[in-house]
């Protein structure tokens, strides 16, 4: 139903020349650009701010896939809508009522995703599946790039895909964390349709080659 999309995670790009990195990675074949927003509370780090996303929005038409690792997602929706987010994915473990956040994102005309951390059961997101555009079972602890892919995510992808297809829903499955060309076929076989990759793409001297390999799924 969905074409496989590759979403480079800008967290792994060179922050001294962010705008040029966007241009470079779009030219290398990115389908989406993945931006991580953190609040220093939900995860003990900070990453990319809505103001930065707004500035970068002027440099490309490629859709922005914004992953928010924050305790109170609702507080960020206006800033992210203004910044030009095309998709906002928030965590089921965050403190705001999921139904309200989903409605708030949709009300702003933005696609909505729900992420879950590796130790969280997919049972927590099942009640919301029919309201989502994407679900993101994370394959590393949220907060940092460069971690190793946790294979437990594969079983989650498979079960989510089964449930989504059984209900005939149009929900994408994204996978984020430690994704490499070796991992990509495993995730795609189980039903992932968006591959987020930071280190694998940006640490390569040939990001276009890596994106193409990821795309072979
Ligand atoms: C981690 C972030 C990821 C991260 C992925 O919390 O959500 O998007 O940038 O980076 P790699 O591909 O290096 O694991
Ligand atoms: Zn992310």
In words, what does this structure look like?
The chain is an alpha/beta fold and about 220 residues long. The chain has one domain (about 5-215): Alpha-Beta Barrel (TIM Barrel), CATH 3.20.20.70. Helix content is about 35%, strand content about 20%. The protein contains eight helices and eight strands. An eight-stranded parallel β-sheet has the order 1-8-7-6-5-4-3-2. Helix 2 (about 50-55) links the parallel strand 2 and strand 3 (about 65-70). Helix 5 (about 150-165) runs parallel beside helix 6. The chain is globular and about 40 Å long. The protein starts with a strand and ends with a helix. Bound molecules: D-xylitol-5-phosphate and zinc ion. D-xylitol-5-phosphate binds near residues 34, 144, 147, 179 and 199. Zinc ion binds near residues 9, 67, 176 and 196.
């Amino acid at each position: 139903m969905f074409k496989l999309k590759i979403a480079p995670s800008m967290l792994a790009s060179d922050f001294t020349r962010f705008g040029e990195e966007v241009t470079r990675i779009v030219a290398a074949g990115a389908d989406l650009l993945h931006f991580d927003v953190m609040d220093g509370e939900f995860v003990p780090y900070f990453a990319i701010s809505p103001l930065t996303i707004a500035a970068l929005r002027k440099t490309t038409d490629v859709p922005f896939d914004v992953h928010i690792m924050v305790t109170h997602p609702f507080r960020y929706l206006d800033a992210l809508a203004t910044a030009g987010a095309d998709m906002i994915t928030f965590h089921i473990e965050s403190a705001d009522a999921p139904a309200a956040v989903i409605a708030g994102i949709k009300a702003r005309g933005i696609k909505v995703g729900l992420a879950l951390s590796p130790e969280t059961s997919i049972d927590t997101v099942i009640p919301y599946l029919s309201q989502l555009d994407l679900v993101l079972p994370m394959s590393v602890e949220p907060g940092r790039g460069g971690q190793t892919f946790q294979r437990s995510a594969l079983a989650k992808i498979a079960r989510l895909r089964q449930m989504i297809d059984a209900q005939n829903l149009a929900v994408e499955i994204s996978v984020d964390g430690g994704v490499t060309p070796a991992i990509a076929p495993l995730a795609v076989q189980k039903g992932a349709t968006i591959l987020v990759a930071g280190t694998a793409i940006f640490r390569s001297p040939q990001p276009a080659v890596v994106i193409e390999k990821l795309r072979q799924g």
